[in-house]
């Protein structure tokens, strides 16, 4: 049984890891930490775990000593501090922050307006998107786990980028997210039920969202060329779910069916990516680790439009993190991850 | 591996059974039927199962021949017809309709305005609420699986009824339900998102809801006396969840803490019922098989108020049905039912 | 043109007054104050008023000097301090807090756990429910404007109390409210969209909600007898709307149609109360000043069940306050209040 | 007092017209027709109008005889049949269908896959977007009233198109709509509350949405050049609201502030269009006739991104129709349209 530690377990990412691990036959959460709830039963932080006898520990390294794997649900700064000692102590580390997602520390600094504080570690970190980096993940000790918009966007565009179908500089990604993507602590009037309900808006318009760089990094690697894209996130009144609608000009005319074949072939062995005949619906993935992808070609304008849907806390966070863990520990990749989306 | 059949698998009850069974280590759905989707892959009925290779069969008995257990998600009439042949063929039957929930066929006829068509079978059916009928369920072949309001209400009032705390004729149950309780096919303008969203209403006011008789039946058996209660259901704009707020006059003054002890003691060995120190929140149970209960005493009026929360499709339907199956097949009661509620 | 001042204009009550006054042909908001937004255009507090050129003033008395009527959307303490000077300066005052809702200051102190600080003023305040106190309101200078649960509950029970139909001590009121009832500033994790959405719960269970005393006061006056009731509020995932489901034992058997006639007769001249043949739906009142009432008799238990629906910020707050103002200034009662509920 | 007739009054457009007219001081609905509810009080179709004494008439021309203006909320075919006789009888006609929105009947036929049946009338119809066609509307007798996506999109892009800022062929419009946009009768399982709630999806992906042609028509006229754009609509779980996020490549680098000045200048005299310093939020427009616009420039990719928000049933339908009526009858344009959005 793999001994699991979770740092920052009272946020949405931590809670979601606890939810998934309740059904994992080969791993058990033995330590979970929280600044806010240290010393309290986990049921205080999550009423959904009222029946659990797990107690939240102080939010420091000693709490997770002896764990085989530690999931870091902390700030970037905390993650950069904690990852080193944990690795030295022999634990594998899966980091949910942005700390270890960029191959180049400079690129991190550019998007996060802050110097990277663990450059050496970063050099050995692997980007935790199994569909693109499966083999490296298997032997990794430190994973930078991608976020929700990024996972949805890269999975939507990877086959097209790889196949060279698109004029990459034409790419526009229009993201729609549920409110849980804003996290549990970032709690402002905007997310008050009364104000958020029955409303929709765009934010960080104009290329300033930090996920942009991460998406470009992975697509560049696949396509082998430099480019810049536009990414615009939106928030709508639902709790979970990310829908990425991705637009790109086709280099040459190409029927939708042809593109679909390229996509189906690209993902044919993937347990968690389904290329649909129709279009994806976020709710079909809520609570699961699946990514659904649909696509069409706008023949009037010669654009490819790919739409992908995931649960931002599932494949967009905790589910993917466990998928990485399974790979790192030599388990079948789907172990403990076969949950079907809640419907309705 | 237990071979499972589901009749009427394209409704919400059927879909929920399929969702739960995806994580059940000792049982496997080998046949699922649907009038509407016969011959289609299950992904047509539920996009959440796009990755499944199960195909829906014609909606008749031959489709589920050879199953060890059959869950009936059909109409009352169909259930009364199908149960007999299935039992004869050696299958155990768990019926999700109202057909086998009443000890007295007359009582069924009174509430459902229709003669009972399988009186002999009804005599051997067991009411599938494990917290009250565990031992009988273990040896049962035919289960009448209770519905959502009923499960929430009975679990909220059983300890008080058993302990004789209440003037039973004073009982009023105020139920609040999510919209999925109306089912997938009962599709009228009332449930159109645009009209249902941001709205709340009461329905079947004045004692006409058919669940009333079922609640009375079980509480009478516990208390050993006749009585009549008032039950008023409400619908509010959420998908899943039932909250039952139950009022009853205390026979003699009794502190809330005292009552709470009686409740904690009554449910102390139950894996799926938690008596809280605070008050329950429906969302803490969504996607799980748990029932959360909280209570208070209104000292000004000497009333006990017990509030219970469940997922109407979990403990209120499919989760409970599988809990019954586990008992009938000698499995640990919690097998495959350890899912934690989705939060947020 | 009546010169209107609003103190505390950046809360939901203040915003709603501004919304209603935009369509009032005989009154104009000339001053609106806010601690948080002093000096800012109103569009900063409410994006819905981006087109308005009103600027928010400092939150003190001088800001509303010269107004014919001042609406106080402040705390109880502030209201008790400000009402006197405003009245002395010749303004009429309509107070949205609880300060002037109780005939007896002792009763206020009992429910609000705080001494009443303006007993002399309280003696001349009128309870602002036009359907019960129309004539007194016409000549009043100071109004204690009732809250949402209270308005819905009293309107639901007044005809029955007046007609002596009920055993008053049997009354149980089960209230359901949208989230805006919690106000704009009371901002805790409970109301975070992600946690509130898809959830329902009861709160202040056991007779501790402060609105209880206010409901009892008005029904006692109508019935001419002492009694105590139980009131249990619930919150559900919608923004606006209050549904009060009121239960009471009939003194003697009485058909629903008979009771309905009593209700229709009681409210026959009321422009804002509709006694329906069916049951009310909160959404039918959202954005309006209407109260919809429906009822049934549970013949098995001899209980009358009356259900009423209002918009908590309309008839439950700002609409009613303007209705009071119209009466105080000799205007037709419906002036500026003819808005139809938003549907869908 | 202008005598108003509404054909097809039991749909969302009709109901919204009735809501708006309740506050219009210069016009009165004297006839409203409905196939479904002919002979019934309007309260049957809309519970929000339970207090109204209007009765719905049979759905034919005689019902609206003698009206000064008739709003057609019927199918395209019915509108093409009815408009002629109504005009002949001296009524002005404002049509909510697509029948009279295209300058070229061929263009109508291309997008609607159906021959235009009233080409002569179409030649005299005016496109009812007051911000672009105010003077023609003033003297028009027949108006083709634009729909919701179209209004939001054209208002978002008109100033840029007029000023020649954009490479028009690069335009991508990503629309997000509330569910009421699907209408009251188009009632499929997709819009069932339980399935639509907590979900988001794209539809008609690949340039097949019929509004595309209408947007192109108006922008072409402003820019004076041919082009083709991509429009992708999305549906999210809210009732009202349209958000159009519009992307276009700038012909030459241009600071956001510069573009904003162009926009503010373009709309400076418009009572219902606000160019914001920040970004629009759909809920700030719900229930109103306002359009909010915000914009940014993505300097990395040299794209202009303009976001606009409206209420799809307000400025996107009924509010705009009344704005047209005001112009046609020489009333101040804002008469009866000053409602402020419901907040929260």
* Helix percentage of chain A: 25-40%
Proportion of strand residues of chain A: 15-25%
Mean pLDDT of chain A: 97
Largest sheet of chain A: 7 strands, mixed
Could you tell me the radius of gyration of chain A in angstroms?
Answer: 20 Å
Major beta sheet, strand line-up of chain A: 8-9-7-10-13-12-11
Distance between the termini of chain A: 34 Å
Helix and strand composition category of chain A: alpha/beta
In DSSP terms, counting alpha (H) and pi (I) runs of 4 or more, how many helices of chain A?
Answer: 11
Strand tally of chain A is: 13
Quaternary structure: homotetramer
Largest interface: A-D, 54 and 54 residues
Which residues of chain A form runs of ≥5 with pLDDT under 50?
Answer: none
Q: Give me the strand/helix succession of chain A.
A: EHEHEHEHHEHEHEHEHEEHEEEH
Q: Outline of chain A, from the CA principal axes? A: globular
């Amino acid at each position: 049984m793999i001994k699991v530690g979770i740092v920052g377990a009272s946020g949405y990412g931590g809670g979601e890891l606890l939810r998934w691990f309740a059904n994992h036959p080969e791993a058990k959460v033995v330590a979970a930490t929280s600044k806010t709830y240290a010393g309290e039963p986990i049921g205080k932080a999550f009423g959904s775990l009222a029946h659990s006898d797990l107690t939240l520990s102080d939010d420091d390294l000693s709490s997770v000593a002896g764990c085989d794997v530690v999931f870091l649900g902390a700030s970037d700064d905390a993650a950069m501090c904690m990852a080193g000692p944990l690795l030295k102590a022999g634990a594998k580390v899966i980091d949910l922050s942005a700390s270890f997602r960029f191959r180049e520390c400079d690129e991190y600094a550019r998007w996060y307006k802050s110097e990277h504080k663990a450059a050496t570690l970063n050099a050995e970190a692997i980007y935790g998107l199994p569909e693109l980096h499966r083999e490296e993940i298997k032997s990794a000790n430190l994973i930078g786990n991608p976020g929700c918009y990024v996972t949805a966007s890269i999975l939507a565009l990877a086959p097209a980028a790889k196949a060279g179908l698109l004029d990459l500089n034409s790419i526009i990604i229009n993201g729609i997210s549920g409110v849980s993507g804003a996290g549990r602590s970032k709690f402002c009037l905007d997310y008050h039920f009364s104000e958020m309900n029955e409303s929709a808006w765009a934010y960080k318009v104009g290329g300033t969202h930090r996920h942009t760089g991460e998406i470009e990094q992975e697509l560049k690697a696949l396509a082998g060329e430099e480019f810049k894209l536009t990414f615009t996130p939106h928030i709508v009144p639902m709790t979970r779910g990310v829908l990425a609608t991705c637009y790109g000009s086709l280099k040459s005319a190409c029927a939708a069916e042809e593109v679909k074949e390229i996509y189906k072939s690209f993902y044919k062995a993937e347990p968690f990516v389904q290329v649909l005949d129709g279009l994806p619906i976020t709710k079909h993935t809520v609570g699961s680790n699946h990514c659904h992808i649909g696509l069409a070609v706008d023949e009037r304008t010669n654009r490819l439009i790919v739409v992908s849907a995931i649960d931002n806390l599932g494949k967009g966070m905790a589910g993917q993190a466990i998928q990485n863990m399974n790979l790192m520990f030599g388990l079948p990749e789907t172990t403990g991850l076969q949950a079907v989306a809640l419907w309705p």
